[in-house]
UniProtKB/TrEMBL annotation, chain A:
It comes from the Eukaryota. Signal peptide: none annotated. Component of the cytochrome c oxidase, the last enzyme in the mitochondrial electron transport chain which drives oxidative phosphorylation. The respiratory chain contains 3 multisubunit complexes succinate dehydrogenase (complex II, CII), ubiquinol-cytochrome c oxidoreductase (cytochrome b-c1 complex, complex III, CIII) and cytochrome c oxidase (complex IV, CIV), that cooperate to transfer electrons derived from NADH and succinate to molecular oxygen, creating an electrochemical gradient over the inner membrane that drives transmembrane transport and the ATP synthase. The keyword Transmembrane applies. It comes from Daphnia magna. InterPro entries: Cyt_c/ubiquinol_Oxase_su3, Cyt_c_oxase_su3_dom, Cyt_c_oxidase-like_su3, Cyt_c_oxidase_su3-like_sf, Cyt_c_oxidase_su3_a-hlx. Its main location: membrane. Keywords: Membrane, Mitochondrion, Translocase, Transmembrane, Transmembrane helix. Belongs to the cytochrome c oxidase subunit 3 family. GO terms for molecular function: cytochrome-c oxidase activity. It is found in: Membrane. This is Cytochrome c oxidase subunit 3.
From TrEMBL, chain B:
CDD domains: Cyt_c_Oxidase_Vb. One of its GO terms (biological process) is mitochondrial electron transport, cytochrome c to oxygen. It holds the Pfam family COX5B. GO terms for cellular component: mitochondrial envelope; respiratory chain complex IV. GO terms for molecular function: metal ion binding. This is Cytochrome c oxidase subunit 5B. PANTHER family: CYTOCHROME C OXIDASE SUBUNIT 5B, ISOFORM A-RELATED, CYTOCHROME C OXIDASE SUBUNIT 5B, MITOCHONDRIAL. The lineage of its organism: Eukaryota, Metazoa, Ecdysozoa, Arthropoda, Crustacea.
Length: 262, 120
């Protein structure tokens, strides 16, 4: 409580995480380049570990500031909402670039590919097998996360928990099925531009599913620690928005790459 | 398999036994006001108490603003920046520091005076 200020904004205490995370992600991308050129994975492995630790501590501090110190006023919530929305928008644009690349190569297939899409010799996945199941899984997970949210808003702890558990389970189920698909795939990332577009687009999507599942898992744990009230649970809402975004990207992937591209 | 399932279902209903699963009552979460803490809680309490502008950040309409009856500017500190929109279609705001005990006159003629206020 200050005698000099009376405003709803959160002027954050000094924190080492912004600078340290900048160094660790710089080291991460440098390590990636080193891995690609020298096949030495040490730098990227260490940087991934460091980045993970820093992320955990930074977000732990955000939870402390919001839940335990009560610094997340309505106005701060508005800022957090803008932040999450703008971040998701940037991710939409990120995926747009991969869809652009896919359509660039597939709409007018080069003569080197046999002037066909899929290219000659490539045996794509049957979209109505595992990919369709994955679509059903993600759509169902959208339902379960919405169920969880409504339960939270209606002050129902138990069903809020059940919905989150179901959503996390479905997310893990999707990831394992996709991993199985990757293992069993008859083509690789090196198989012409088909392989590149397929694995880069679905690969980044899979990474986002893992991130979204982790975010939801954190919400699950926080819910078990009673961090959420029926009116204030923005962490959950942000996770749900992110999860819906991941679902929508999959729908586009399914329709264009798996189905139309077959 | 399907016919076996159907037979079992019809057998149970023919018995006329009503079986309902006994579910424990769903646990509830804390009351949002009880759950809140710190500034967030004080903000909720202030709004509930009827203090519509707890941070005193809204735009106030100027009153007469003479030297005898200046515009009263609430502040939790000994000083506060106040901005005067001199006329309705002014293209800039005239910002000035206001100090406790020193009423000040904007160039356009309106007077301002600091008064005490409590933070949220």
């Amino acid at each position: 409580m200050s005698n000099f200020m009376n405003h709803p904004y959160h002027l954050v205490d000094k924190s080492p995480w912004p600078l340290l995370s900048a160094f660790s992600v710089m080291s991460l991308v440098t390590g990636l380049a080193k891995w690609f050129h020298t096949f030495n994975v040490s730098l990227v492995a260490f940087s991934l570990f460091a980045t993970t630790l820093i992320m955990i501590q930074w977000w732990r501090d955000v939870v402390r500031e919001g839940t335990y110190q009560g610094l997340h006023t309505i106005q701060v919530g508005v800022g957090l909402r803008w932040g999450m929305i703008l971040f998701i928008t940037s991710e939409v644009l990120f995926f747009m670039s991969f869809f652009w690349a896919f359509f660039h190569s597939s709409l007018a297939p080069a003569v080197e590919l046999g002037s066909s899409w899929p290219p000659a010799g490539i045996k794509p996945f049957n979209p109505f097998q595992i990919p369709l199941l994955n679509t059903a899984i993600l759509l169902a997970s959208g339902v379960t996360v919405t169920w969880s949210h409504h339960a939270l808003m209606q002050n129902n702890y138990t069903q809020g928990l059940q919905g989150l558990v179901a959503t996390v389970f479905l997310g893990l189920y999707f990831t394992s099925l996709q991993a199985l698909e990757y293992y069993e795939a008859p083509f690789s990332i090196a198989d012409a531009v088909y392989g590149s577009t397929f694995f880069v687009a679905t690969g980044f999507h899979g990474l986002h599913v893992i991130i979204g599942t982790a975010f939801l898992l954190v919400c699950l744990i926080r819910h078990m620690f009673n961090h959420f009230s029926s009116t204030h649970h923005f962490g959950f809402e942000a996770a749900a928005w992110y999860w819906h975004f991941v679902d929508v990207v999959w729908l586009f992937l399914f329709i264009s790459i798996y189905w139309w591209g077959n | 398999m399907a016919s076996f399932v159907c037979r079992s279902v019809f057998a149970a209903t023919r018995r006329g036994v009503s079986t309902t699963a006994v579910r424990a009552a769903d646990k509830a979460m804390n009351d949002p006001l009880e759950h809140a803490t710190g500034l967030e809680k004080r903000e909720i309490l202030a709004k509930q108490a009827g203090r519509e502008d707890p941070y005193e950040m809204q735009v106030y309409k100027r009153v007469a603003g003479t030297k005898e009856k200046p515009n009263l500017v609430p502040s939790v500190a000994e000083h506060r920046v106040v901005g005067c929109v001199c006329e309705e279609d002014a293209t800039s705001i005239n910002w000035m520091w206001l100090y406790k005990g020193e009423p000040k006159r904007c160039e356009c003629g309106y007077w301002f005076k600091l008064i005490d206020s409590k933070p949220v």
